[in-house]
Amino acid sequence: MDASTILSSMRPNLSSYETIYKELHQHPGLSLQEHLAAKTAASHLKRLDGFKVKTNIGGTGLVGILKNGDGKTVLLRADTDALPVKELTGLEYASEVREVDLEDGNEKPVMHACGHDMHITCMLAAATTLYAAKEQWSGTLVILFQPNAERGAGAKAMIADGLYDEKRHACPVPDIVLGQHVMPLPTGTVGTRVGSFCSASDFFRVTVYGRGGHASLPHAAIDPVVMAAHIVVRLQTIVSREVDPRDSALVTVGSIQAGETENIIASEATIKINVRTVKPETRTKVLAALKRIVKAECDASGASQEPLWESTSSFPFTINDEETTNKVAEAFTKHFGESHDAAAPTAEASEDFSILATEATNKSGGKGVPYCYWSFGGVDPKIYKDLKNAGKMDQLPVNHSAYFAPVIQPTMSTGIDALVTGALAFLQ
């Protein structure tokens, strides 16, 4: 029995899953506080007799393990955290949650502005479908719910907490790791790509030091605000003048903080920088240029001391394994037909998903198992087409927008089908 036949006959009625989705959307949890998502996932998997469920891995992370005879071990991953964004969608199930962010202690509005609530729901329905079809496949299925993906720390935390240590969590090392993400693309579509799929991303907090003083006596001070301003402008030349135009890179200054009032020259300024690249050699070049420019501008301004660099977060490259991705693509084309794009464009967004594969110890005793990550659409096709034809794609709400809200159907059924089809490509 092929994936399409299994899905048409064994996919559960999705009305209850739509209710789960709305509940998750209305009650999101920030990174490290994904309690409702974890409780919902664990409760659902425990009702599927045969799944061995292990919770509280690396925080609120959990796995459900279904051993179903000989064969490969396939791990399917869904992320669970929300973002500090005030929702403006106007949906009847919009989030009004406010929560204290454990990162800085400040209360913030919370929204599932990246679609992780859709990921959770699709995974639960996919697990149910594969459970119902267990007479049709053989192997071991691992359903993994990962916290703290938005800050790039959840996968690392689960690995560090002994995810693949069978004495701790009884989770076998997978042969294949699979995952997906809903994107601002027409719903009903899926996209795969061999090789680079998501960019690496590096986050820095850089403090530059001047000498504080009175605004009426600038000659007696060293102004870190002017120093920071020169740095920000000069950083924009890295991509435009040092990166090959045929390559891809981004350098973003997301925050500058200095001083408290108008008539005091501050003693220091803090710049928060994000770098995204799709090639390892470009990453090395851009990070070197970043440090060179910051140091040079500090020297040119007569800074009172060397800048302080703090790495606040880092996401690895997501580079899909060729053989694995080709197998997934073949299965997707068979099931989705022309709605599958086997040459989807590289995403500038970043993911920590790959760590679940690259940090696993393979059967040869080395590091790393193959993985594939794909996208699926969540935008009403008519709205997408109309905006594209009108040249107004900048009005399309994207991930992390306060207006981002996937169309529930057929987004959900597409995400379910993709997970089931991808898994069965290796379990049959």
Describe this structure in words.
The structure is a single chain. The mean pLDDT is 96. This protein is of the alpha+beta class and 428 residues long. It folds into two domains: 3-199 and 317-427, 3-Layer(aba) Sandwich (Aminopeptidase), CATH 3.40.630.10; 200-314, Alpha-Beta Plaits (2-Layer Sandwich). α8 (322-336) crosses α11. The strands form five sheets. It has an eight-stranded mixed beta sheet with strand order 1-2-6-3-7-18-8-17, sandwiched between helices. Strands 12-14-10-15 form a four-stranded antiparallel beta sheet, covered by helices on one side. The longest helix has 22 residues, at 280-301. Helices cover 34% and strands 26% of the residues. It starts with a helix and ends with a helix. The chain has helices at 3-10, 15-26, 35-46, 116-132, 154-160, 224-242, 280-301, 322-336, 355-358, 381-389, 408-427, and strands at 52-57, 61-68, 73-79, 98-100, 107-109, 139-146, 176-186, 190-191, 195-198, 200-209, 213-214, 249-258, 264-265, 268-277, 305-315, 318-320, 340-341, 371-379. β4 (98-100) and β5 (107-109) form a beta hairpin. The radius of gyration is 23 Å and the shape is elongated. Its cofactor is Mn(2+). GO terms for molecular function: hydrolase activity; metal ion binding. It comes from Calycina marina. Residues 204-298 form the Peptidase M20 dimerisation domain.
